[in-house]
Amino acid sequence: MKTDALYNSRITKNYVEYLKTHHPKVDIRSILEYAGMTPYQIEDGGHWFTQGQVDRFHEAITKAVPNPDISREAGRFSALSAAAGDVQQYALSFVNPSIAYRMLSRIFTRASRSCIVSTRNLGKQQIEITVKIRPDVIEKPYQCDNRLGTLEAIGRLFTDKFARIDHETCIHKGGDVCRYIVSWEVSASHIWKQIRNASILVSVALASVLFFLMDETEWVVFTLSAITTVSLLSLGLERVEKTEIETALKKKGERTGELMDRINTSYNNALLVNEIGQATASILSTKDLLRSVMNSMERLLDFDRGMVLLANPERTRLLYVDGYGYNADESWFLKNTAFHLDNPHSKGPFIVSFRDQKPFLVDNVEQIRPELSAKSFEYARFMGVKAFACVPILNEGRAEGVLAVDNFRSQRTMNQSDLNLLQGIAPQIGVSINRVRDFEKIRESEERFRTLGENAPDIIYTLDSEGTYTYVNPAWEALLGHGTGDVVGKSFTDFVKAEEISSYTGLFKRIRQKRETVKNEMTRMISRDGSERLFSISACPNVDSSGQFTGIVGTMKDMTALEKSHATLQSALQGTIKAISDIVESRDPYTAGHQRHVRDLSAAIAEEMGLSDDRIQGLQMAALIHDIGKMQIPAEILSKPGRLSAIEMSLIQTHPDVGFRVLRNIEFHHPVAQIVHQHHERFDGSGYPGNLSGGEILLEARILAVADVVEAMMNHRPYRPALGIEPALDEIVANRGKYYDPEVVDACLRLFREKSFSLK
User: Fold this and answer.
1) Helix axis angle, 374-383 relative to 328-335, nearest 10°?
2) Is 339 in contact with 309 (CB distance < 8 Å)?
3) Residue among 502, 499, 498, 539 at smallest CA distance from 517
């Protein structure tokens, strides 16, 4: 419990005011330092101290002032102390001491959390007050003495005399509670009122009796004398009551004024926080935001000067950004002063506040002079700073800068409440700065994007959730001829070929529903003059902060020229391949037309199996030159009518390797060299040159193997006559699943037996 905050700073401040009044030579600062207290904590009516702190405070006081009754005297002083203003105001609001004492349970909670107070009325001018210390609290005798003096002082608030206290039961003398019997004198107006009322009663009674005993003249004289006496007593009562009322109103007025000042301060503080929040919502630049904050602080807070320092982007310097209350020379000095964050040995308050993320409240710069560098002290001297407060500006645990204030002209003492206020404002400033910075980054990013988009050679576009164009860059007009106004607001389907609308719509739905990112989808767009252009389209979904689909952003790369170049190259390549094929066949007249026939049959089988046009095109290239390796074999071996020797056969079997070496360095769009290399491999691994099997062999090579065998058996060879189509089909059926892929064989059979395919 020794570390719990139990005692309000008003109690300690009352001691300080007592010492300043009655013992002005006492060094209060050293007493506070010994107790672990600061002047601004004392000034803060919302601050609370621990048992250990107040014990050390009392220890230091008794050493400085050897008076055993000092705690009781300090308690009595509370009737005059400004430190007890709230308590005085609260007590005076109860009109008379009887009610004030009965309400002590409420009054004491404003000053101490260490005890429970109860009261019991014993008479008109007497009350019993019981104080029970809370568990785990170890109260000291001096605190009981101070409470005794405070109870005496409450009576003085109403009667100008201390109340009388009978304190027989005390926890420091063996009692389980502290019990106080409090009595007080009645006020002067009350005594006057009792005398006047008694005079009225006596006068009326005597006048009634003497009416029968005196003659008329004597009785009238007596009655007039009695009336005069009562009138004089009433007049005196009125003056006494007026004096008492004026005194009470003066006390209440002083405390009410102080209370109104605090209410206005609290209102201004809340208004400032609200204005900062509003500025964040409407101001979109850091400079304008901080100017607005400084204007609000100057108008609403009780500080003569204030400023904001922010770290530079490299976080090596703290730089002045904005402030108020400074003259032209001071502003120039601040703008040309940098505080070094990159010096780990710097002990300047601004640097330490930023680096260690801690607040500072310094009520006398001279006291921290040994801790300041020469540059920091020169700064304080030039700026005339004597006392100041500064707090770090934080956002999500990261220091962004420092907020600092001081009272250069008014010399008003700053307290813990001021520091607490700044600590409440600074994070709001930090959040606001980062929101504005984020917006500035977004704005810069948008500007860069727009600049990029405006100058990009490719079309950049955005669609809304319904597929309507919301933005296209100038490249659209350059490539397709439509102006921006002719595109924005229209559907994407308005610019594609009618037969491609369904595929384009499907693409849009995939992106919208599955959040897919699409790359390099080829489509044709209709230009303004009606011509078609080929584009490679990429697109990704655009979503908001909640993950809701809001549209599409993407690019279109014009592939029209590339398509034409590709077509030209393909035509040239096809011509070259055909020329090579003709050269190969010219060396063996018996196989003339073989490669062209194999090409046609391979393409038909591939189409029957559902291969894409692109793969079929590659297969056709490979089929047309699949025997290019035979150019290395002597013509007499190729055209030998009899059976080949083992050496001649091994030489023939080199032609796939030779063909691969010839073709491998040519950049085909398809795996032509690999297909040629594998066209004599067999499904069971018995082929050559690599003994590949099953799925290790490219599908195109498996198709080429079947087409090669069928075409060879159908036509004449030097070593035998043509066998015809049926023996050729019987061969592939007999070796289906052994030498040849079953699916390829089945496709070939369907062509000849079901679809009447024939080679021309």
Assistant:
1) 160
2) yes
3) 539
Residue pair 440/284 in contact by the 8 Å Cβ criterion = yes
Please give the backbone phi and psi of residue 559, each rounded to the nearest 5 degrees, phi first: -110, 10
Q: Mean pLDDT over residues 133-141, rounded? A: 92
Please state, in angstroms and rounded to a whole number, the distance separating the CA atoms of residues 44 and 415. Answer: 5
Tens digits of per-residue pLDDT, 154-189? 888 777 788 999 999 999 999 999 999 999 876 666
pLDDT bucket at 420, cuts 50 / 70 / 90:
confident
What DSSP designation does 85 have?
H
Question: Is residue 545 domain-shared with residue 580, that is, in the same domain?
Answer: no
The pLDDT, as a whole number, for residue 141 is 95
Q: What is the mean pLDDT of the chain?
A: 83
Query: What CATH number does residue 71 fall under?
Result: 3.90.1520.10
- The verdict on 680 and 613 lying in the same domain is yes
Distance, in Å, from the CA atom of 16 to the CA atom of 565, rounded to the nearest integer, reads 95
Q: Indicate the number of domains in the chain.
A: 5
Q: Are residues 725 and 600 in the same domain?
A: yes
Q: Please give the sequence-ordered ranges of beta strands (E in DSSP) within 465-574, or none if there are none.
A: 469-472, 518-526, 532-543, 549-558
pTM over 0.85: no
Preceding omega of 689 cis (within 30 degrees of 0): yes
CB within 8 A of 576, min separation 6: which ones? none
Cβ contact 416:37 at 8 Å: no
DSSP for 558-611, please give it: E-HHHHHHHHHHHHHHHHHHHHHHHHHHHT-GGGTTHHHHHHHHHHHHHHHTT-
Banded model confidence at residue 512, pLDDT cuts 50, 70, 90? confident
Please state the rounded mean pLDDT for residues 9-21.
90
> With contact defined as beta carbons under 8 Å apart, do 532 and 551 qualify?
no
**Banded model confidence at residue 573, pLDDT cuts 50, 70, 90:** low
What is the token pair recorded at 349? 């308050």
The pLDDT, as a whole number, for residue 200 is 72
Q: HSE on the CB side for 322, CA within 13 Å?
A: 15
* Distance from the Cα of residue 556 to its chain's centroid: 36
Q: Indicate the pLDDT class of residue 250, thresholds 50, 70 and 90.
A: low
* Residue 275 resides in a domain: no
Report how far residue 503's alpha carbon sits from residue 492's, in angstroms, rounded to the nearest whole number: 12
CA 135 to CA 461: how far, in whole Å?
74
In this structure, what token pair is assigned to residue 433?
């700065």
End-to-end CA distance of the chain: 107
